[in-house]
Amino acid sequence: MLTSSALYKQAIHAPNQQGVFQADLYDGPGGTVIARDVPVFSGSISANLTHRVTRTGTFTLGGEWWPSTDPAAPLTPYRTVVNIRAGIRYGDGSREIFDVITGRVGEITRNDDGSVTARVDDLAADVLGVEFEQPRNSENVSVVSQIRRLISEALPEATFGTDDVTDAATPVLTWDTDRGKALDDLANAIGGRWYALGNGDFVVREYPYDVGTVVQTVQDGKGGLLVSGAPSITRDGAANSVTVFVERFDGGAPFTVTARDNSPTSPTRWGGPFGRVTKVIKVQTPLTIGQAQTLARAELNAATALSSSWTVAMVPDYTLEPGDTVRLISRGENQVQLIDSITYPLGPGTMTLSTRAYVRMQATLS
After folding, report:
1. Does CATH place domain 214-235+306-359 in 3.10.150.10?
2. Would the pTM of this model clear 0.85, i.e. be above it?
């Protein structure tokens, strides 16, 4: 959750709040400012931690920003990086706004009414666009340092935020062409994900498998933020056996480890009424059998729970981010959920959340 004032936390619950949506245009990543505080008329930005390019969306500006075919125009796929901010304006004219995306303009369309709509993808797209042109060997550095080096090789202007993972040494590895796969494997080895924040900083952070500390309550009723909420529960994605297959590209022999739910009292017991469902994970980064076992048990801990999820429409709170934990209350149902994805409106309208939490009823795994 982004930091905000106490006034903001109160104001989002009040009726008739006035939204503010603005953009700064830059001459490439880390480049000079082309234009500041450009009004954004409409659009939306989606943020999803399960995607390599976490933030993507569209925004609409006035017709004067149509570039035609001029590659030197202020708004063009040839050069423009945009930072979009959203928030609220207070009665005294002051405003409080938050970064929702920083990324490269990928496509521009002039609409029938003369307005201009642009697509934007966060700066991870720039990193993924630079594949290894020849096999790339890992270096004798920590995993986080290796991740930062791979990002900076592709995007020298990259900036980095605060990581929250437990770092480790990078094993001897060789990657083929896919830079994104290399980054995914490295982050996965320390239980995290690499992605870009709304302000453009890259981070490596733990991917939460379960709920944490509640940062916002979204409820129905007077003064509540909830517009609509639909809870569900499913066994999709659940498994009671996880096998980690370690493919060593440093010449070492490959090996596998398996973690299985054999607890007699578990509702997801292997061979019990739940059935048999396997999940296989292929990685090349764990150094030891012990590390692979830790990964397998962590994955099994998540996989053996059914998934409770909500689809929510709410009054916008631009401080919320994917990975935050919220309490959702609708028609007497009260659940704590983890946000998987958010769609931020860039105009009047509701913000949507997709959330999940695990329904844990089984005994300790054996």
Report:
1. no
2. yes
